């Protein structure tokens, strides 16, 4: 029990020291386009200024803001950094880099990005285009490169994700098949829910009381596992159904909401879910909250899917794969949570330490996210 308490306190300290969780994890966005009959690759690369500032110290005057003049002065350094961290080759022969147009800035949902327009000159393109990506891996192992690859002779987009475990990949010169598309987006869905800390905390905040029952204004351990499983299934099913609806509507461009509103509302949903555990007013109606706020979380999932890029010729497959991936990742979290929570349900450590103290920590962290997102800090 002492080890469990120590583990819980460690997690609490990590949560309090994680302001970066308020935003999306560090990502850069690459679009690589090949043209039939040519061996050149057109590359657009969007890199967050906050990431570049961390590595290159762009903010020369130290005022906490990066202006266009500071970026422009370091444009050559930015280009050198980027091209040294992405190696393209074909048939064993490396491609060389050239600048296609001057560096620009663009606004993403999570801040301002430097936009590099490059050309990779390859001796020839045969078989596949081999890519090795290493931007920021030495300072941030969680960083990812989100790639949209357009093979020659097609307008279909193939989405790839470069991470520390997938730094080297081959980009097929032929359009991907249906199974490849489904598999890729399924993996992306699983990965996103595992790094989507706000989604995870919202779900866990709703699940914490699932192994408890409330009598005479107090929490008590659930008498039977079947009852706890039923509560978990109600919450998870409601959340899944709700975010699947809005994820599909947003991905198909039927409904669209401002990113700042969505991200702020998601943070607020975590606060409300956590505080409800202290009052104990929802009890068996937690599935209603899961459904209501799950609609908002679906728009958050959709923004990630949009960043990955949706292949128009395989739109349904990509959407289904991503959604199934999110559910599989979610079920993996529940599979770990439920047996541990049920085994501890009757202890004061769980009822007070995990449920009450943990809910307070989650509410405070999510409140800080809310402030950051509302005021774009």
Structure description:
There is one protein chain. The chain is α+β, with helices and mostly antiparallel strands and 377 residues long. The chain folds into two domains: 25-175, no CATH class; 185-374. It has helices at residues 2-16, 49-56, 68-73, 75-84, 178-195, 197-207, 225-251, 259-279, 286-308, 315-344, 348-374; strands spanning 27-34, 40-48, 86-90, 93-94, 96-108, 111-121, 128-133, 144-150, 157-162, 168-172, 212-215, 218-221. It has a six-stranded mixed sheet. Strands 4-3-7-10 form a four-stranded antiparallel sheet. A two-stranded antiparallel sheet has the order 11-12. β8 (144-150) and β9 (157-162) form a beta hairpin. α7 (225-251) crosses α9 (286-308) and α8 runs antiparallel to α11. It starts with a helix and ends with a helix. The model is unreliable at 1-23 (pLDDT under 50).
**Helicity level, as a percent range?**
40-55%
What integer is the average pLDDT?
85
Radius of gyration: 23 Å
Alpha-beta content class: alpha+beta
Oligomer: single chain
Quote the distance from N terminus to C terminus: 39 Å
Low-confidence stretches: 1-23
Summarize the structure.
This protein is α+β, with helices and mostly antiparallel strands and 377 residues long.
Any chance you could write out the topology, listing elements then pairs?
Elements: H1 2-16, E1 27-34, E2 40-48, H2 49-56, H3 68-73, H4 75-84, E3 86-90, E4 93-94, E5 96-108, E6 111-121, E7 128-133, E8 144-150, E9 157-162, E10 168-172, H5 178-195, H6 197-207, E11 212-215, E12 218-221, H7 225-251, H8 259-279, H9 286-308, H10 315-344, H11 348-374
Parallel strand pairs: 1-8
Antiparallel strand pairs: 1-2, 2-6, 3-4, 3-7, 5-6, 7-10, 8-9, 11-12
Helix pairs in contact: 1-11, 5-10, 6-8, 7-9, 7-10, 8-9, 8-11
